[in-house]
Amino acid sequence: MKARACTRREWSAIFLVLAVAVLILLLHNMDILEFQQEVNSIILLRVTTHPDMNHSFCTFQPLSPEDTLEERLLLDSIAWPETPPLPAPLYSVNTSDPAHSTFTILPRRGGGQWHVGDQLEVMIKMSDFHGRPKKSGGDFLLARLHNLKLGAGVAGQVVDHLNGSYSAVFSLLWEGDAQVEVMLVHPGEAISVLKRLNREHPDRVYFRSLFRTGSLSETTVCNVCLRPIQQPLCNYTDLRTGEPWFCYKPKNLSCDARISHTMKGKGGFTMAYERKLFRRGVNLKVYIQASGPGNVTVLPKKKGQPEVKSSSVTSGPSGYYYQGAWRALDGTTVQQFNIYNITKCLKGKKVHMYGDSTIRQWNEFLIQNLPGLKEFDLHGRSKFEPFMAIDNANNIMVTFKFHGPPLVSRATVPPTALPYTANEIDRLTGGTNTIVIIGIWAHITPLPIELYIRRLQGIRRAVVRLLTRAPGTVVIIRTGNPRALTFDLSRIFSDWYSLQRYKVLRAMFKGMDVHLIDAWSMVLAHHLPHNVHPRPPIIKNMIDVLLSHVCPQKDS
Question: Which pTM was predicted?
Answer without folding.
Answer: 0.87
